Structure formats: C-alpha cells, structure tokens
Amino acid sequence: MEESMTPAQALAIAEETLDPANAAEWSAFRELAHRMVDEMVDYLSGLAEQPAWRPMPDEVRVAFKEPLPLKGAGHEAAYRDFRERVLPYPVGNLHPRFWGWVQGNGTPLGMMADMLASGINAHLAGFNQAPALVEHQVLEWLAEIMGMRGASGILVTGGSMANVLGVTVARHAALQQAGFDVRENGLQPGPDGSGPPRLMCYGSTETHSWARKAVELLGLGHRALRRIPVDAEYRMDVAALQRSVAADRAAGALPCCVIATAGTVNTGATDDLTAIADFCQREGIWMHVDGAFGAMVRLSESLRSQVRGIERADSLAFDLHKWGYLPFECACLLVRDAELHRSTFSNSASYLGETTRGVIAGGIPFADRGLDLTRGFKALKVWMSFKAHGVEVLGRLIEQNVHQAHYLAELIDAHPELELLAPVALNVVCFRFAPPGTAEESLNPLNQEILLRIQERGIAVPSGTVLQGRHAIRCANVNHRSRRSDFEALARSVVEIGNEILSESKKSD
Length: 509
Ligand SMILES: Cc1ncc(COP(=O)(O)O)c(C=O)c1O
Fold this sequence. Notes:
Strand order of the largest sheet: 1-7-6-5-4-2-3
Largest sheet: 7 strands, mixed
Radius of gyration: 26 Å
Structural class: alpha/beta
Bound molecules: pyridoxal-5'-phosphate
Number of helices: 16
Shape: globular
C-alpha cells in the first residue's frame, strides 16, 4: 500500500475476481469455452477409433508432480495441460469395448447437463427454487420406475453412498422399534444404563464390499454382517438366511436388515427378492435392496420379472451412472417410509432455519435425507436426459446389453478353448481360456496374463474376478456404445492371446 493511500483506497485498487475482468477477456473466454466444447464433442464422436485404453508413458506420469502454482498461467495453459496430459490417458470407460468392473459411459447430453449444472452452481441442500423442484420431480419419476410411488428419496454420489444411507435408516428404524434412541446415545448405554441390543445385518457372500464399510461405519462391526451362502446361481440361499436369523434371535441379537441384491457385482445374479420380501415381512425385518445396476432392469418390460419383489423394499439403492448411462456421479436412495428417512438424518441449526418467505422458504429437505449439506445439481442431468431421450430407450438399451451378454456367452459356449464360469443371468459374463488338456493350476496365471495383455494392447477392457478359486475374465456390460462385433473381437482376442502365451511358454520350456 502506498503511504498516501487510505485503507479504503488500497482495497479498491486491489479488489479482484476470478471472472474475466472486462469485455475483451470475456470474449477470449467465450472463444476458449467454445473450443473446449468442440474438442470434447470431437473426442466423444471419435471414441471407437481410439484404443480402449492407453498405458501412460512414464514421462507423462512423472510430469504430474508439480509445485503448487502460486501464480496462474492462465485459462489457455490450464486447458492445454488437460488436453495434452489428461485427455489421452483416462480409464477408458467411455469406449465401446470397455466392460470392466461395473462402471458406466455417460452421454454427450449428460456432459452438457453437468456443464449447465456447474454453470448455475445451485446449492441443493433444498431451497425450494427451480433446481429443488427439478430434484423433487426426478425423485418422483425414479420412485415411479421402481414401483415405490410416494417413497422419499435423495440423489447421492454413488451406489456405495446410497446403500450406506439405506442401512443407516434401517439401523435407526430397528433401534427405534426396540425403544432405543441411537441418535442420542449412539451405541452406548442410555441414561437409564440400558444398552442397545446387538444388531445383525444379513447379505449373501456375493454382497458388494460397501456392506462391510457400512457395518463398520455404523458401529456394528464386521462381525454383525452375516454372510449367507449362495446357490449354484449365486443367489442368496433363503433357507440359510432363515436359519441364521433364527440362531441370532435365539442368542439375543436383533436382526437389523436383510441386504438383498438385484444384480450382484461378480456375476449379475439377482436374489429371490419376493422370497426375501415375504421373509422380512413375516419377521418384521427391514429389507434393503442393493440394485446398483440391476434395479434399472425395471425399465424393460421383458426383463422386469427378473427383479420382481424389488418394489417391496423398505429401502432401495441404485445408480444412474451405471445402467442409467449418465456421467458420474449420480445414484439414488429411495426409502418407503418418508418420516423414518427424515428422522434418521434431520438436524436443526439456527443458521439453517426455515422461513415462510425468501430464499430458504421450504427449508432444506435434501440435507435432512442424508449426510451432505452442500449438494450439487446432479438432478439436472437426470431430468434433461429423461426429457430428451425418454425412458423407453433406456429400457431398450438395457435389453440390448443383456442380449449382447448372452451373445458373448454363446460365442464362448461354441468355442472349444473357452469356458463359461458362471450362468449369465443378466449382463455379466465370466469366462476363461481353458484349452482341453491344459493343467488346471496353470489356468489362473494364464488368464490373468491374457486379461492384462488385452487391456495393455488397447483391444478391450474387461476386468477380472475369482469364482470358486478360478480366475475369470469378466465383462459387466452397461455400455450403450458396444456392438455385437465388439464382443466377437473380444472372444477372438482372448483365444489368440491365450495361444500366443501358451506357445511362448512352450518355447521357453
Ligand atoms: C452391486 C453393486 N453394489 C454397489 C456398487 C457400488 O456402487 P458405486 O460404485 O456407484 O459406489 C457396485 C459397483 O459396481 C455394485 O456393482
């Protein structure tokens, strides 16, 4: 500050903003922004010509270690770094031949909706303005799709978060019914000295790993998660569930919830949701369904019966960024009893008090249905996508993915050197290269190597899993860009690379 200046004068000179400073800067920004859009559209429209994945050279990898930028290099320079160093080296999940884990592709419209959402940067704790009305509408639509009209809902980052929140409501409900206030006492004894009952959760051995995080986070501990065995089709053995619940009750424990799965991560199996719903109803136990991808099958008339019973869930978690084809992140939790949902999370703070008029009229209902206070406008991409595409096409795409999975299974069945390792219930295909006469103990390392070469050569991206000790190449197809020819290329490459590895090892013997 110059000596002759008053503090107010100095402040006036120093005032800054992160917006472009004047008309010329706005115009340069507009030009850059248009270029960004053009180049991303080029990128999306040319995906099929790119390798499915490209390993990152070491020199690019090390270049990410940079000192904290104290002075900005400008928009152009930051974007150039993105184009040169980030854009060429993604995970690959947009590619037509990506079927690894259960990721998702996203859509061009979803990308633009995310830009618009970020542009208006709405705060979705609630605030009953247009963005909140969009989210309320989206939640109503999703509840209608799932056969859970009237349920309370919340959009969250992903299936893991949606599931954890669902089990949190289940814990609250079970303990409330038992006359114990978990919100006030946690899992410690209350003022009268009486502690909470020991709670138990039940999921199959195929339940996704979020469930372990949930029981740990909720203070129940890993031992509170009963792993119920599965049948030959990887579905929860309901008789074993009944026995486990009965034994726990006899030992004085309180069943908190049954976690059923619609579309297991390993094989795509769906538990017998109707039998589990009947059991839960008889026993008065909360039924939570993890429908991360499987729940969206409700959109297909011909496949809907596979998830029959899902509509009877007390809580249901599912992703929109998997089989809803939307960009990350977006998932939904639905809870049938809206009051229980609210009373699990609601909070009051003087600085968030609802008024009858003004900006916070209508309160912050979304903050009262989960953990986040500040929430972005995920609902916009769902709203715009449903409006633009209609949900019927989503149902048809889901059917297309299931047909493609069965087509791949047929190719595997028809090939003497390929072996299917699990029944194909929906969209997940687990198989391996197993030429007759190859020693069983060599098949796991062989198939691991095939998988890595297929990825590293950019041919395709399946992932791996282990089923009954056997290493499987696993395709989880939630890809709206895949074509039958992509699966033919995968099956062909597995055989070619498998034989290539076998002949290499023969030469080295
Ligand atoms: C059955 C199942 N549940 C939960 C999840 C976790 O979902 P997210 O990755 O969106 O957190 C997945 C992810 O693949 C899944 O397949």
